[in-house]
Design goal:
alpha+beta; Beta-galactosidase, Chain A, domain 5; TIM Barrel; 8-stranded parallel barrel; 11 helices; globular; binds (2R,3S,4R,5S)-2-(hydroxymethyl)piperidine-3,4,5-triol
């Protein structure tokens, strides 16, 4: 097993990288190394000892602890904060023992106990060798009789090699403008990236990358994420003694957990990796991991779908949807998804949420007729739901006003005319499981889009069994429970995660959902940048992208298709208004996409020229065997005359000969990668080119 153990020192070795830590003479678990594998176990550095300890600074400034509690003279940002029943707020952890297990992946568990109180902490380290990834989480157990209040329990602290000259990359944004990449210098102090909205949100993503001088293709990058679909927090701290550390976990803002005997608190997994090959390699490692280890249907080729939302909004019925379906099928669409508007009394966004049965006026005979029609046209059928929500104008709310998150003495602030069901409550979970199971059991539904369209307010839970602030965590567990139960009952259904676009895109939800609706912004030139940001940590086969009518007057249809073809191609325009020529172009590009989609969905992605930084951009996908590739080039708007840059390909076999569509002369992989090629485009033009290996 690639975990080297000794009584007080541990090395986790993966394919190319290693991670080491050990107990120092004070018994503190000190981080020792995270980087390339070293030839011998004795090569890894020893734990850090408190060599000097000025009276004004605690030793933890010098000892990069793996999991520091708030205690003693530690002034760094802790990962664990506890209040014991007698009011003591100081957690002193002493190492007890460790165990290793080989399966499902090699895992090391280290057990600690508080020196006085009956609190037990287990740190878990699981390695994913072929991905060079370490998964870390913690379990807290109360071995006594009285509740212990946990006020912060992060999943991991990651320590960089000593130094204070790092940069932090992270993603930020807002609704219809998600996934902007920001890279900024880390300076002494604390930088916080977090969500307080009960979903990861559009504002920030639970992802980070730290580097010293890396580029897309070169340089050391330490990167990580949290498999959690709720409030998260990332803190990046540079101490006054030049140590750089990143903590990641469930956000402790407004959080508290009453830890009861016999009911462990298990944190979500933090996943971290190291590469010396730049940001592109870091992304590809996560892409492979998500596809191979997380997604329920990671090996399934995704179908081209049509979604009705932008065409018909709430105005759905058998006639309007059948018309759209017929045109979509004629263009080669394989899955027809009916979006919002199909259920009881849902004519606008002010009523109906919660009443998950077909509206009697729009669908007098249920959904069966439409589904039959869609199936006859050769397509699968998909449906939109927003289970966590309720409109005050709904039968559900009239029957159970107490089921929503609220404070009894405060106004229940509505957003999009809706309130949030308290998913932590068992009766809410059971209602949703039974109601949604009925729809899935009675109808031939192959796809569900699970939406979530507002952030939380007045986070009250009057009759909470524990601390009401457990809501932040128990809510997410509730979502996971409902979703996974429905998944188990309907294992073949493909699920999409949507939260007004990309508000819930994370490694936690991708254990349940196969794909993400990345943004409500479907204007293609904006979408290019959004998609590039998304690709920092999530793969193309999770990135649903529709071609719509947004920007139709300006942006050519081919361009709009090419942008969507970089992920999971879908169509969302009002096909009734597309003329014959447009439908024809659409049909041809759908046919082309079906040819190249295995490379896009399962291949390696290379961001050749950034669309977030340039008006001219390129992205390439290469199959794992390096036999096939696809190159996309886009020009948004650059004043002419302009000397367009050469596009240097990536990921090819340097010694093999490749052809690139549109270029007469086949060349070696090395030549395409070193000297590149020029794709002349005018403003708002784009091109897709197939790459093919001709010889070994
Ligand atoms: C928000 C989603 O992001 C849209 O795609 C659409 O499903 C609407 N909700 C429907 O209300």
């Amino acid at each position: 097993m690639p975990i080297h153990t000794s009584p007080n020192y541990w090395v986790l070795e993966m394919r190319h990288t290693a991670y080491a830590f050990g107990l120092n003479k004070m018994g503190l678990l000190s981080h020792c190394y995270w980087g390339k594998c070293l030839p011998f176990v004795q090569d890894y550095p020893a734990p850090v000892e408190p060599v000097h300890w000025p009276s004004t600074d605690g030793y933890d400034h010098f000892i990069p602890e793996e999991y520091p509690g708030y205690a003693g003279v530690k002034y760094i940002d802790p990962v664990l904060k506890v209040t014991y029943p007698d009011g003591v707020r100081d957690v002193v952890l002493e190492f007890q023992d460790f165990t290793t297990t080989a399966s499902p992946q090699p895992t090391l568990d280290l057990r600690f106990k508080d020196s006085f109180y009956p609190l037990q902490l287990t740190l878990h380290y699981r390695i994913h060798e072929e991905y060079d990834l370490i998964e870390r989480w913690a379990t807290l157990e109360n071995l006594g009789n009285d509740p212990v209040l946990i006020e912060r329990a992060f999943s991991a602290k990651w320590t960089m090699p000593h130094g204070d000259d790092y940069s932090l990359s992270h993603l930020y944004g807002r609704h219809i403008d998600e996934f902007h990449l920001k890279r900024e210098a880390l300076t002494p102090g604390l930088k916080v990236i977090e969500s307080r909205r009960i979903i990861p949100s559009h504002r920030a993503s639970p992802w980070f990358a730290v580097d010293r001088n890396a580029s897309e293709d070169h340089g050391e990058v330490w990167f990580g994420t949290l498999a959690w679909s709720g409030n998260f927090k990332i803190t990046a701290e540079v101490t006054e003694f030049a140590s750089t550390r990143i903590s990641i976990g469930i956000n402790d803002w407004d959080f508290a957990w009453r830890l009861l005997p016999g009911e462990p608190l298990v944190t979500p997994s933090a996943i971290g990796g190291y590469t010396s090959d730049g940001f592109g390699a870091a992304s590809r490692i996560f892409h492979d991991y998500v596809r191979d280890r997380l997604l329920p249907h990671g090996k399934v080729l995704h179908k081209v779908l049509y979604n009705s939302w932008e065409a018909t909004l709430f105005d759905v019925n058998e006639v309007s949807q059948s018309k759209l379906a017929a045109i979509a099928a004629g263009m080669g669409v394989e899955l027809f998804v009916m979006d919002d508007g199909w259920f009881h009394n849902r004519n606008l966004d002010n009523a109906g949420l919660g009443d998950w049965f077909p509206d009697k006026v729009k669908f007098p005979n249920g959904l069966g007729g439409l589904i039959k029609r869609v199936n006859e046209l050769g397509m699968d059928f998909g449906l939109w739901i927003e289970p966590e929500m309720v409109n005050p104008d709904s039968d559900l709310y009239r029957a159970h006003p107490d089921w929503v998150i609220h404070f009894p003495t405060r106004k229940r602030t509505e957003s999009r005319n809706q309130l949030i069901l308290n998913m932590a409550r068992a009766e809410v979970q059971n209602y949703l499981i039974e109601t949604l199971d009925k729809i899935l059991s009675e109808n031939n539904i192959a796809f569900i889009k699970w939406d979530m369209n507002r952030g939380i307010s007045e986070p009250g839970w009057a009759d909470a069994p524990g601390d009401p602030r457990e809501l932040w965590v128990r809510y997410v567990y509730g979502v996971y429970h409902v979703w996974s139960t429905l998944r188990q009952r309907h294992p073949d259904v493909i699920w999409q995660s949507c939260a007004s676009g990309g508000g819930r895109a994370d490694f936690g939800i991708l254990k349940l959902a196969d794909q993400v609706w990345v943004s409500d912004n479907t204007e293609a030139t904006a979408r290019l940048s959004i998609q590039e940001g998304y690709s920092q940590f999530l793969p193309a086969n999770t990135m649903e992208a529709w071609v719509t009518d947004w920007g139709r007057e300006l942006v050519p249809l081919e361009f709009r298709f090419h942008v969507s073809m970089c992920g999971l191609l879908g169509v969302g325009g009002n096909l009734l208004e597309w003329n014959q020529a447009e439908r024809q172009v659409g049909a041809e590009l759908i046919r082309l996409y079906k040819e190249i989609r295995p490379v896009i969905q399962f291949g390696d992605q290379y961001r050749l020229i950034s669309s977030q930084k340039n008006g001219y951009s390129a992205v390439q996908y290469v199959s794992k065997d390096k036999n096939e590739g696809v190159l996309f080039a886009f020009r948004v708007h650059i004043p002419d005359p302009f000397n367009l840059p050469m596009i240097r390909l990536r990921g090819l076999d340097p010694n093999a000969i490749y052809s690139v569509e549109g270029f007469e002369q086949p060349r070696s992989g090395l030549a395409w990668m070193e000297t590149g090629l020029k794709v002349e485009l005018k403003n708002l033009q784009s091109k897709v080119m197939k790459i093919h290996r001709l010889s070994a």
